[in-house]
């Protein structure tokens, strides 16, 4: 009998060039990439090329060249990996949770939406972000607790910066306009707190994106959402997503609401989850899980572009058997 597990679906920071090169021939990988490519800007910036070609551009270069391609590749990599883990390798998670825009990938991983639906939402979000005036800004990670970060924000006089994500006991992300971020970085340096600028296109998890969220919600009201085949958990509410309306709202949460990932991990542990499986190629959420719930077991099967054999080996604690099913299932379209 295997330990109860949760599948972690990362968002920002999950794009790794050629991340799926070793598993690109799997049906669920090919199917996901084909669906997402229908919304790609084309040329060298298809999700298929970015995620299967080791010479694809790194995150900083890609987001400058094509923010939409960056968004779609981030989403496609997580969804393709999560679907492969579930339907090819046979992992049966007891819950799925996303982080930031990874909430959208989590909906697809749990089959509440089709992979193509998430791509359509991101394409619409891209058009709205381009067409909605927003001050220059972004995201900064601090090696500090949420409480310590709030104190730094107070010392920096805020300038519209607020906590965007409470990730782990000693990792918090803030979001806001550029002048405020610069002020917070200066105060943090003076206090000996390490800061890191995150690769992103705007100030996610901030009220300044309320106009974008409002317009995007109109699209989501017309979007087909289905009961998930695996229970979904919200990293914004740190609670289960119970209704279809809850699920719809979760697709917008990354725009204006802060992430409570640390609290979500602790709540999942209290519910009986003992195994945390990171679906991303960078093992970012796995690291946060290790820091927050050190007694739990954390797996990152697709970390470092693992071969099929290595993925199977890493998944054994979750599968309860030596090899995946001989006849993988396809899941919902």
TrEMBL record:
InterPro entries: Ac_transferase_dom_sf, Acyl_transferase_dom, Acyl_Trfase/lysoPLipase, Mal-CoA-ACP_Trans/PKS_FabD, Malonyl_transacylase_ACP-bd
EC number: 2.3.1.39
Broad enzyme group: transferase
Domain of life, source organism: Bacteria
Reactions the enzyme catalyzes: holo-[ACP] + malonyl-CoA = malonyl-[ACP] + CoA
Keywords from the named record: Acyltransferase, Transferase
One of the record's GO molecular function terms: [acyl-carrier-protein] S-malonyltransferase activity
Residue ranges occupied by any Malonyl-CoA:ACP transacylase (MAT) domain in the UniProt entry: 8-306
GO cellular component, one term: cytosol
A GO BP entry: fatty acid biosynthetic process
Signal sequence annotation: none
PANTHER family hit by this protein: MALONYL-COA-ACYL CARRIER PROTEIN TRANSACYLASE, MITOCHONDRIAL
Stated name of the protein: [acyl-carrier-protein] S-malonyltransferase
Organism: Streptomyces paromomycinus
């Amino acid at each position: 009998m295997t330990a109860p597990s949760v599948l972690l679906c990362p968002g920002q920071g999950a794009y790794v060039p050629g991340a799926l090169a070793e598993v690109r021939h799997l049906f669920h990988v090919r199917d996901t990439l084909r669906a997402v490519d229908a919304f790609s800007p084309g040329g060298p910036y298809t999700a298929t090329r970015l995620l299967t070609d080791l010479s694809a551009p790194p995150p900083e270069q890609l987001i400058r060249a094509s923010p939409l391609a960056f968004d779609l590749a981030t989403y496609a990599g997580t969804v393709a990996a999560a679907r492969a883990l579930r339907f090819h390798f046979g992992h049966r998670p007891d819950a799925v949770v996303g982080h930031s825009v990874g909430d959208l990938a989590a909906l697809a991983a749990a089959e509440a939406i089709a992979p193509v639906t998430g791509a359509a939402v991101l394409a619409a979000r891209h058009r709205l972000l381009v067409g909605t005036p927003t001050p220059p800004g972004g995201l900064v990670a601090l090696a500090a607790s949420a409480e310590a970060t709030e104190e730094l924000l107070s010392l920096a006089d805020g300038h519209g910066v607020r906590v965007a994500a409470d990730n782990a006991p000693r990792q918090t992300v803030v979001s806001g306009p550029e002048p405020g971020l610069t002020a917070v970085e200066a105060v943090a340096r003076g206090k000996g707190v390490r800061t890191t600028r995150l690769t992103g296109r705007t100030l996610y998890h901030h009220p300044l994106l309320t106009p974008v969220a409002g317009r995007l919600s109109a699209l989501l009201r017309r979007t087909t959402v289905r009961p998930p085949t695996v229970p979904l958990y919200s990293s914004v509410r740190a609670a289960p997503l119970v209704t279809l309306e809850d699920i719809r709202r979760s697709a917008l949460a990354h725009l204006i609401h802060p992430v409570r990932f640390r609290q979500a991990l602790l709540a999942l542990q209290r519910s009986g989850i003992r195994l945390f499986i990171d679906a991303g190629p960078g093992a970012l959420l796995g690291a946060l899980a290790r820091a927050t719930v050190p007694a739990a077991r954390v797996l990152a099967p697709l970390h470092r572009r693992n071969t099929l054999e290595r993925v199977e080996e890493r998944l054994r604690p979750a599968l309860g058997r030596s090899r995946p099913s001989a006849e993988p299932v396809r899941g919902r379209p």
